[in-house]
Amino acid sequence: MGDWTPRELRFSNLGLRLMSAAVLIPLAIGGVWLGNWVLAVLCAAGAGIMAWEWSGISGFPRPAAMIAFAVAACLSLPLHTPLLTSGIFAAGFSFLALVAKGGGRARGAAAFGFLYVSLMPAALWLLRDGPWEGRSAALYFMSFVWASDAAAYFTGRGLGGPRLLPSESPNKTWSGAIGAVIACALCGLAAADIERVPFINWVLAGIAISVVAQVGDLFESGLKRRFKVKDSGSLLPGHGGVLDRVDGLGAVSVFAVLLFELVQGLPAQLGLQS
After folding, report:
1. Which residues contact 212 (CB under 8 A, 6 or more apart)?
2. How many CA atoms within 13 Å lie on the side-chain side of 8?
């Protein structure tokens, strides 16, 4: 089966998406460029909004508590006190699971949701602040994710074709997924040239970034379908909620931080050594 969206409607929200991007992209770039407390405040704001959205789609009865823990977790990062940050995460996980009404599913949704909306922005801050060339790493990875999203949108809507995973996200197609991977591979060629490292290093990184971003997007789509909602919110015209917009970047940030920490020589292979 192909893309079910009528051809005349496939780009109907393009104007709204461009308007949102015109605001969000400079804000994200500015926050990453300045880093430290500026980025922490932006991450905290994003985490708070996503906590509110998650509370809405999951039916969590105390959104203010989830917002408070999510904001506190992100604002603790510039203090460089891992014990404090870990304590906030542990306390939030336990408290929110305890106060959630219902059985184990409701408690699990509350605890998981808090980690989900908090770890993604926290990982972006950690990527920017890591013992590598954090500003460049974060800017590269953000641009790759944006390229992946744009290529998936235009190739998927333009070419249509078989659906990628209709049970989770009926609008996504194989043509969009392949277009996104190709776009990120081309971005990898440009990054390798800038950083003066072997092209294969960044091409593989670009492919991995696109795949992880798309998996993150599909994962969030699957969560929404299980809660029977279309969008996580309506704050961003053309996109839905903040959670709808940052799921791919959040997944990439988490994956990148873990990989950079586990594979010590990886940043150097990408020309991102400090």
Report:
1. 248, 251, 252, 255
2. 0
